[in-house]
Design brief:
The complex is a heterodimer of chains A (114) and B (116). Chain A is built from no helices and ten strands. Classes of the chains: A mainly beta (114), B mainly beta (116). The interface between A and B is medium-sized, with 24 and 30 residues.
C-alpha cells in the first residue's frame, strides 16, 4: 500500500532562517504532488502543486522540488516568519485516479521562533 | 474563508445517538469529499462524490452513511458510533475537469466529534 513519510513530526527554527521539510513516498508513482498548510482547529489550505515533469516550483517565499527518482519532495520556506508556524502536509496524487485522489502524510509541525 | 462551510463545528454524542454532519460548498465545484483526521494519523479519505454520485468508499464502517443531494451539499449521517470514531471530520471540494485533474482541494474548518 502507498506510504508517505514526512521527515519529522516537529521542526523548530529561528526567524529569518530557511525551513526545509521532507516528504518521501513509497509503493506508488504520483503524477503530481501537493503541499498544504494546516493551522490548529482549521482545515488544510492548498499551497503549491508540482507535476512529475517539473523539478521545481516557486511561489513567493515557498519553493517545492520533486525528485521522482528519489521519490521525494522538499518544501522550503525562505526568510521564515513566526506567522509561518503551522503543520505542513504533503499529498502525492494517485496516478490512476481521475479524481486526483490524494494520499496525505502525517504532517510536519513547524515552529518559527523570533 | 475557503468557501466550504461545515456544521456543527463541535459535536458530542453518545454511542446510541444519531446525528448528522453537514457540509456546503459555495465554489461551484463538482466533487466533494469526507476525510477523517485523528491525532497523530494522516488524513484518511472516507468518501468521494463526483457530480452527486458516490465514486469511492474506502472501506468505511456502515455506521457512517454519506448523502449528497446535490453538488453543493454533503452530509455524513452517524449512528451507533464508537469512542474510537472521535476525530476531526473534514469536508473538501474540488473542480474535476476530466482524465487528469490536477485538482486542489478546498477544505472546510471541520467538525470536532467526540463519542462518549
Amino acid at each position: 500500500s502507498q506510504k508517505i513519510e514526512q521527515n519529522s513530526e516537529a521542526l523548530n527554527i529561528q526567524e529569518g532562517k530557511t525551513a526545509t521539510l521532507t516528504c518521501n513516498y513509497t509503493n506508488y508513482s504520483p503524477a503530481y504532488l501537493q503541499w498544504y498548510r494546516q493551522d490548529p482547529g482549521r482545515g488544510p489550505v492548498f499551497l503549491l502543486l508540482i507535476r512529475e515533469n517539473e523539478k521545481e516550483k516557486r511561489k513567493e517565499r515557498l519553493k517545492v522540488t520533486f525528485d521522482t527518482t528519489l521519490k521525494q519532495s522538499l518544501f522550503h520556506i525562505t526568510a521564515s516568519q513566526p506567522a509561518d508556524s503551522a503543520t505542513y502536509l504533503c499529498a502525492p496524487a494517485d496516478r490512476g485516479s481521475t479524481l486526483g485522489r490524494l494520499y496525505f502524510g502525517r504532517g510536519t509541525q513547524l515552529t518559527v521562533w523570533p | 474563508e475557503t468557501g466550504v462551510t461545515q456544521t456543527p463545528r463541535h459535536l458530542v454524542m453518545g454511542m446510541t445517538n444519531k446525528k448528522s454532519l453537514k457540509c456546503e460548498q459555495h465554489l461551484g465545484h463538482n466533487a466533494m469529499y469526507w476525510y477523517k483526521q485523528s491525532a497523530k494519523k494522516p488524513l484518511e479519505l472516507m468518501f468521494v462524490y463526483n457530480f452527486k454520485e458516490q465514486t469511492e468508499n474506502n472501506s468505511v464502517p456502515s455506521r457512517f452513511s454519506p448523502e449528497c443531494p446535490n453538488s453543493s451539499h454533503l452530509f455524513l449521517h452517524l449512528h451507533t458510533l464508537q469512542p474510537e470514531d472521535s476525530a476531526l471530520y473534514l469536508c473538501a471540494s474540488s473542480q474535476n475537469s476530466g482524465v487528469r485533474s490536477y485538482n486542489e482541494q478546498f477544505f472546510g474548518p471541520g467538525t470536532r466529534l467526540t463519542v462518549l
